[in-house]
Amino acid sequence: MIKIAIDAMGGDFGPEPIVKGTLEALKEKKFEPILVGKKDEILSLLPKGYKDKILIVEADDVIDMSDAATDALKRKESSIYKAIELVREGKADGVVSAGHSGATMSLATLRLGRLKHVLRPALVTLMPTKTGQRSIMLDVGANVDCKAEHLFQFGIMGYYYAKDMLKIDHPRVGLLANGEESSKGNEVTKETFGMLQAEKGFIGNVEGNNIFDGSCDVIVCDGFIGNLVLKASEGVASTISYFIKEYIRKSPVAITGALLMRKVFRLLKKEIDYAEIGGAPLIGIKGCAIVSHGKSNPKAIKNAIFQAIRYVNTGVNEHIEKRLEELKS
């Protein structure tokens, strides 16, 4: 049975939503959860019927969001360090953390190591599209400065992630640029374009609107651009939601319309809600690490755990290694 190590102390709201999310996940799927953190606090949140179903690993140190990611390697008693060590030692198949994202990525990369031939791991996120099928964007924060060979590998990793995790038979891979023509982009993207041309599924340069229109399944960019796109998208979604609420509040006619559109609003909220996804996988490392939002609620933690289970089951890591091995031979 798959074992998932969960950093119980990492989120903004302490262990309560993380423990609740773990319990919700257990009600729906069979797996072995390992909660890592302050044992007394975790036990106080567990119903009696679950205390023998969940393993608890004591960790009395917590890396705060204000701490430097570089300190994570020194703090071996922290919950995230111990959770990742469980994967490194083969005692868990994957790790989920809503804690310090920089610490999680640094520890996962350095303690678990990279897949064979992978130069840099990348952080993956799913974006909503008009077709209902989510698109994949990587990198969204692990690497702010990239060379062409890094982006090239992101394209390969994204292709197999889309194929294995989203069950897309023939993923379309696009390189994010400021125009569709091959001459567009900076020197790095132009070089990457030439490298990706021979790869399966590559459709060329794509622009920002293609992230959401369903014309591309995998969008490749460096972590600096990817993170800006992600945060800007979240801001736009939040602003639109705000305006809708304000117009409804101020207009009696709009209130009537809103009652009729309630189901549509619920569906829209579901599309843009990070809790529906659960977290962002750090792809390209040995094992599995899901980086969740610091404000994750129980639903987000549950879905992050489900994502980790799927990741382990699909064999995406093996497929990435096989393709990179072929390119080396």
Describe the structure.
By secondary structure, the chain is of the alpha/beta class. It has 2 domains: 1-115 and 284-315, 3-Layer(aba) Sandwich (Isopropylmalate Dehydrogenase); 119-275, Isopropylmalate Dehydrogenase, CATH 3.40.718. Helices cover 45% and strands 15% of the residues. The protein contains 11 helices and 11 strands. The chain has helices spanning 15-28, 39-45, 79-88, 101-112, 148-165, 187-196, 223-250, 252-260, 262-272, 298-314, 316-328, and strands at residues 3-7, 32-37, 55-58, 94-97, 122-127, 135-138, 173-176, 202-206, 218-220, 280-283, 289-291. The chain has an 11-stranded mixed β-sheet, with helices on both faces. The mean pLDDT is 88.
